[in-house]
Structures are given as structure tokens and as C-alpha cells.
Amino acid sequence: xxxxxxxxxxxxxxxxxxxxxxxxxxxxxxxxxxxxxxxxxxxxxxxxxxxxxxxxxxxxxxxxxxxxxxxxxxxxxxxxxxxxxxxxxxxxxxxxxxxxxxxxxxxxxxxx
Amino acid sequence: xxxxxxxxxxxxxxxxxxxxxxxxxxxxxxxxxxxxxxxxxxxxxxxxxxxxxxxxxxxxxxxxxxxxxxxxxxxxxxxxxxxxxxxxxxxxxxxxxxxxxxxxxxxxxxxxxx
Lengths: 112, 114
Known about the structure:
The complex is a heterodimer. Chain A is mainly beta.
């Protein structure tokens, strides 16, 4: 399928290394944040979420960090694998209870 | 179980034509969302259905765009008098409960207007 992000910032990492993908969010009213993974030709896939009353949340090989002071979100992927290659989007809820506002995305390339 | 499905996967149409894009949400999901994704960008919200009614259509770009969900399950996004700027991937998502951030996305329909 067509590539989602031909002009996206790209992070290239060696297989087995840790990856850190950053996101600056825009709306001070946001209290819910999600990271999505999108492979070429597919829809976004939920990875991990965090609410504003937390500053860190861990999943399987992934950790999300939230810094509300500077409106910054990061996704850490441990022991990056070739299957992690994709475009990663952060999303926030703004002042909505259902509408998601997506960031512009980062392409992760994993070198074997 | 089956995820969100969208048909067609690709649609090429001429400027000025009418198109319909279909979304089949996950069975039992009450809420349905349409987003549009342009190349190199994140998805942008178009419309949100709670059951059969459009609870929020504030993201629809203009009155050429319309969406329905007559029986509270399948939804159709309709675009009249298509323009080249409408070319994008149209994503559908559904959630079990109304007003949930836990949205499951379909693979999208890639619309190309020539």
C-alpha cells in the first residue's frame, strides 16, 4: 500500500537498541494521550495510553513518559525489533471526550 | 474476532464524481468515527456517530461531505462533486462505548481524485 509518511522525520536505530520517539502536544486541556503505530497500508494500531494524572506508564517493551509542564510525550521501545518499523503517532484528546487529535508522526526504521 | 473493515480499499475517481466509502465496525461497538489522513500527516477527525445519529460532524470540511449510519452499525461516507484535494486515506474507527478513546481503526480507503 501507499506509504503513510514520505516526508516524516525519521529515526533509524540498530536492531536490539532502544528507541525513543518524542512528541510535543498542543492543547493544555488534554488529559489523555495515546501512542499509535501505523504500518504501510494499514490503519493506526493502539500501543499504549496514559492519563494526565500519571507521568509514566509501562507496557510490554514500551514505556510512555508524560511531562505536562512542557507538554511533551515520549515513547520508549526497548530492544527494538524489525517488526517495530512503522510510523508512530501520538494523539491527545484536547477538550473532547471522544475526538483524538493526532500529531504529525515519526517514522522508525530498524536496521538489521 | 473480526476488526473494522472498510471497502473499497482503493478508489480512483474523476474530479466532479460522487463516491461512497463504507465502514463495517466491530460487532457490538456503539460508536463510530471517521478520520481523514493526508500523505505525511496524522489522521484528522471528520465525524462521530453515537448509535445512528451523528453526535459531532464538526470535522467535515464542507457540505460536499456527508455520512450516515442508518441502523447503528455500518456507516457510509459520501462525497459529492469530488475535488483533487479530497485525495487522502479515509479511516474508520469504532469503540465499544460511546465517547471512548479506545478506538479501533480499519485499514482505510485510499481515495484518489484525478
